[in-house]
């Protein structure tokens, strides 16, 4: 197994890295395993610094959160029905989730989650590049878990969905696909593109509040106009609660707001 501790330590702020290491040591004492997972691992392999820390516990997150040692590291500011919690560390937060599986009663609905192991948790995620996990336990610190080829896809800069119904289960993944494509300059795998073209209309079944959250994320991107243009090309923007038709003038507006040189 590859060890990527150097990449992780080069791209995570020191105070958050220290907290992650301490949490990993606590997990090991409890005979559990704690992993960095998802975007922070992806970004570290791309050499991108990140404060967006997601951890997954192969164990019992409820019991873990009640451990006095965990509570000494930060303040638990929220918990959810999805077996997740937020740990406040100074001005930053760390998201800790139980390894879990999820099922969807219908397209666009919130998932029903149950406890699972790391392998099952990885298999429920959105894209291969977000399935990479890195152990934080001292005995295996820095070891990369890559069971679905996410590392190769990062190296080749490919965005690949995990399974045929991924966008039916959670249509907001289509919006995230556009975000990742534009932010990380990725090519979308041909099969994944075919799923998007087939399933983009499932966006209509997502609640307005969830869509609002995703569109806010679009506008937080460095170049939101690129994401909007991509979503428009897929027909997604016309299905939003407030339909939006992308036009070239939109790019000029964003350039003006950023005070970019004229392209």
Brief overview:
The chain has 263 residues and is an alpha+beta fold.
Task: Describe the protein in words.
This protein is α+β, with helices and mostly antiparallel strands and 263 residues long. The chain contains 13 helices and 11 strands. It has helices at residues 5-11, 14-29, 39-45, 61-66, 68-73, 118-123, 150-156, 166-169, 172-184, 190-199, 208-219, 224-233, 248-258, and strands at residues 33-37, 53-58, 75-80, 84-89, 92-98, 100-103, 112-115, 133-135, 144-145, 158-159, 187-188. A 7-stranded mixed beta sheet has the order 3-4-5-2-1-8-9. It has a two-stranded antiparallel ribbon with strand order 6-7. Helix 1 packs across helix 3 (39-45), helix 9 (172-184) packs parallel to helix 11 and helix 9 (172-184) packs across helix 12. The longest helix has 16 residues, at 14-29. The chain starts with a helix and ends in a 5-residue tail after the last helix. The relative contact order is 0.11. The model has no long low-confidence stretch (mean pLDDT 93).
